[in-house]
């Protein structure tokens, strides 16, 4: 028997993973949720048929969305995570003792339930006492908060579907307002490679650049995302991702990682020329 | 009376049968089920263009309905508690004009508020009836005109016992309703017809706890924009009549100006939407009302903006309020409504219905989702944070009482001259000037151009309103009557 999970990366490109068995299938108020087990990538979480994470490569995404801003901001105490119901970003955040409080805003309670049951690899630290989960709309939550957070991680789905709100100018503006005067926002920034993704990426950059004085983009290689070439946005009120980056201080913390390191931190901000061009066009 | 099954869709069914018959078309339209226009077919879809067909026996004829259109109109009449319902394909504008033309002849007087849609005054230009304006009550804080006060209507009726009809906007664009039942009683007691522009009130017929409808208030005619809150295609509309009207005569009036090639896309959309509303309207509009109320609460929590609702009810000129209308006062943020309207579109990719001097209207309907409401609220919160300023020097009042010199028809067709805007003060205008939307004239033909009106026009231009009406597209010049 051959069972394949397939995701269309464009109307003309398919990405397939051989599935050993399906562990879960459910429909929430917001989306369809599936968990598969596979030989090559381990367990796989998909939402509406799009891969959110696999056990084999999720460390890349979660380390890069978390440790880059944590190595720049000198003292993060309060963190807001928007989306991220799989718990991967939280797992990385709780490695820091300075962090006192984490609010996780996930719109879909079922995602958290399913991940706790089927994906303990990422959901393992959601029960940490510093973590407070709120099941509500991210846009609405941020609107009601002002000058509260040192760091906001926007761990969203793609800008087509329930995650659409998290790519809007009003959302980025709300995040700016919810951050303290030296706060940083890092967001999942889509891919520069395929046309539709690149357009979404450019629009997001334009809106962030309009909302924050410092807006840079960095990259990582994530094999199961469309094209494998993925970007993150680093938006900040005060700290520059390279000039204010303190590698020695971070290395002293001895945080265990598999992908992130302080050399890679600097290199990740060096982007291919065509990506720079797409970004510069809207800056 | 035998109840009809609102589950039926006669026009839709006839079109389905027609498609199955695979008829070879040697009639218009010339695109022949889309085959002759591949780009159009690609754009609109084969399903859509294949039912863009002409009247024929199995599909009936809008000009003289005897079969499926007749049945569909009967179903609509029942759903809307009317004696008869006409399917209209030239927009609610044509329904409004058919009401006025059915009620009035040349020289007849018709009592109406001045803040009517341009289509009403257009009808007066066409038929030569004379308007008797009742100045609408005004809410000074919000700067908007309200409904008609019963006393004012009574005064107009007493002073003009020869008037043939009373025209009522119900609800207004902002959601304000007049005391329709009392106005109808009063007018009928004086032998006058009551015509209701119910363009923004389709949902009153189906939602629970909604303001009274024209037909239930026993008005004689009502123009209902099915394409607004009813969900049908743009330009499709209904004209409802009560039992005192002569159906055949009204149809003749409609046929004076309505197309003889009624679009089956529009007709089927009316049929399908009527069914949807009749079967599911109650829950749909409960959901819409909840969304609007949620949005109001959230917007009022931001501060600065004021999303108003039933608290403005005053027992007379605001007899009731349509809670599905999300009308928001913006002046306390230091922004004109039209400025907020432009910022929402240009900066936040959010299109709302209109913005005027001091208010915006976001249209909430059966197609809205909670997360879209969050975007609107989030954007307004950001606009306040980023753009708030002092409100000194802003115009606050939407409505300026007109000085009527002559009838719209006389002024429209009279000898006229074109003058630069600044030189028109004191002259009598021969054309319309309005912001669109909402399309309520600042000046109508036959009205005097005053300093206040010129100031308003300049202010509206400066703030970015889309002004329409005059011959001169840029509105730098106005046509005024010669020698007056």
UniProtKB/TrEMBL annotation, chain B:
Q: Does the keyword Lyase apply?
A: yes
- What molecular function does GO assign, one term? carboxy-lyase activity
- Signal peptide feature range: none
Task: State a single Pfam family of this protein.
Answer: OKR_DC_1
User: What does the UniProt keyword field contain?
Assistant: Decarboxylase, Lyase, Pyridoxal phosphate
Q: Gene3D superfamilies, alphabetically?
A: Orn/Lys/Arg decarboxylase, C-terminal domain, Type I PLP-dependent aspartate aminotransferase-like (Major domain)
Question: Can the keyword Plastid be found in this entry's annotation?
Answer: no
Names of required cofactors: pyridoxal 5'-phosphate
The record's similarity note reads: Belongs to the Orn/Lys/Arg decarboxylase class-I family.
Q: What is this protein called?
A: Orn/Lys/Arg decarboxylase major region
């Amino acid at each position: 028997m051959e069972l394949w999970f397939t995701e269309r990366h464009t109307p003309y490109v398919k990405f397939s993973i051989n599935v050993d068995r399906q562990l879960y299938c459910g429909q929430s108020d917001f989306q369809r949720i599936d968990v598969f087990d596979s030989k090559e990538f381990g367990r796989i979480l998909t939402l509406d048929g799009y891969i959110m994470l696999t056990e084999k490569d999720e460390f890349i995404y979660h380390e890069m969305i978390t440790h880059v801003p944590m190595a720049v901001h000198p003292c993060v105490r309060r963190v807001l995570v928007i989306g991220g119901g799989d718990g991967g970003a939280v797992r990385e955040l709780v490695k820091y003792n300075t962090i006192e409080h984490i609010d996780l805003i996930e719109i879909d309670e079922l995602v958290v339930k399913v991940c706790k049951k089927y994906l303990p690899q990422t959901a393992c630290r959601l029960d940490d006492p510093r973590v407070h989960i709120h099941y509500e709309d991210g846009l609405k939550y941020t609107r009601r908060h002002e000058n509260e957070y040192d760091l906001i991680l926007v761990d969203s789905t793609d800008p087509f579907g329930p995650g659409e709100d998290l790519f809007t100018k009003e959302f980025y503006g709300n995040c700016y307002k919810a951050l303290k005067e030296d706060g940083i926002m890092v967001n999942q920034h889509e891919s520069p490679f395929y046309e539709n993704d690149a357009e979404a990426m450019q629009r997001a950059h334009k809106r962030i650049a309009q909302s924050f004085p410092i807006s840079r983009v960095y990259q990582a290689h994530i094999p199961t995302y469309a094209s494998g070439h993925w970007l993150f946005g680093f938006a900040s009120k005060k700290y520059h991702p390279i000039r204010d980056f303190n590698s020695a201080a971070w290395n002293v913390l001895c945080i265990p990682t598999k992908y992130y390191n302080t050399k890679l931190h600097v290199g990740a901000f060096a982007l291919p020329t065509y990506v720079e061009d797409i970004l510069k066009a809207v800056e | 009376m035998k109840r009809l099954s609102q589950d039926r869709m006669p026009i839709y069914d006839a079109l389905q049968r027609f498609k199955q018959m695979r008829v070879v078309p040697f009639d218009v339209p010339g695109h022949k089920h889309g085959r002759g226009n591949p780009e159009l077919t690609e754009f609109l879809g084969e399903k859509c263009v294949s039912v863009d067909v002409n009247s024929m026996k199995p599909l009936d004829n809008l000009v003289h309905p005897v079969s499926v259109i007749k049945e569909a109109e009967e179903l609509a009449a029942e759903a809307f508690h009317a004696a008869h319902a006409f399917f209209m394909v030239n927009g609610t504008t044509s329904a409004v004009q058919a009401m006025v033309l059915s009620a009035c002849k040349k020289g007849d007087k018709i009592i109406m508020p001045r803040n009517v849609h341009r289509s009403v005054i257009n009808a007066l230009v066409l038929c030569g009836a004379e308007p008797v304006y009742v100045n609408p009550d005004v809410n000074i804080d919000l700067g908007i005109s309200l409904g008609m006060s019963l006393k004012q209507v009574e005064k107009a009726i007493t002073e003009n016992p020869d008037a043939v009809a009373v025209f009522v906007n119900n609800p207004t664009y902002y959601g304000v309703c007049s005391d329709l039942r009392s106005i109808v009683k009063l007018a009928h007691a004086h032998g006058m017809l009551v015509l209701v522009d119910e363009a923004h009130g389709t949902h009153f017929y189906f939602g629970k706890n909604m303001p009274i409808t024209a037909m239930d208030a026993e008005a004689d005619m009502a123009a209902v924009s099915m394409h607004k809150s009813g969900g049908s295609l743009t330009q499709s509309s209904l004209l409802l009549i009560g039992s005192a009207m002569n159906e055949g005569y009204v149809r003749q009036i409609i046929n004076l100006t309505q197309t003889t090639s009624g679009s089956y896309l529009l007709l089927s959309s009316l049929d399908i939407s009527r069914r949807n509303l009749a079967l599911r309207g109650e829950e749909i509009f409960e959901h819409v009302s909840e969304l609007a109320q949620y949005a109001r609460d959230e917007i009022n929590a931001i501060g600065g903006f004021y999303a108003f609702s039933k608290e403005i009810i005053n027992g007379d000129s605001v007899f009731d309020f349509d809670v599905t209308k999300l009308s928001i006062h913006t002046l306390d943020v230091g922004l004109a409504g039209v400025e907020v309207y432009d910022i929402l579109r240009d900066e936040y990719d959010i299109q709302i219905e209109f913005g005027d001097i001091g208010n915006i209207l976001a249209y909430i309907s059966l197609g809205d989702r909670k997360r879209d409401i969050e975007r609107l609220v989030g954007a307004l919160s950001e606009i306040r944070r980023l753009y708030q300023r002092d409100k000194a020097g802003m115009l606050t009042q939407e409505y300026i009482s007109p000085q009527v010199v002559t009838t719209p028809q006389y002024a429209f067709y009279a000898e006229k001259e074109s003058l630069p805007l600044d030189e028109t003060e004191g002259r009598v205008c021969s054309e319309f000037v309005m912001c669109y939307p909402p399309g309520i004239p600042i000046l109508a033909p036959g009205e005097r151009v005053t300093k206040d009106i010129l100031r308003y026009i300049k202010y509206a231009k400066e703030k970015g309103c889309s002004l329409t009406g005059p011959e001169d597209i840029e509105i730098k010049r106005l046509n005024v009557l010669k020698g007056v």
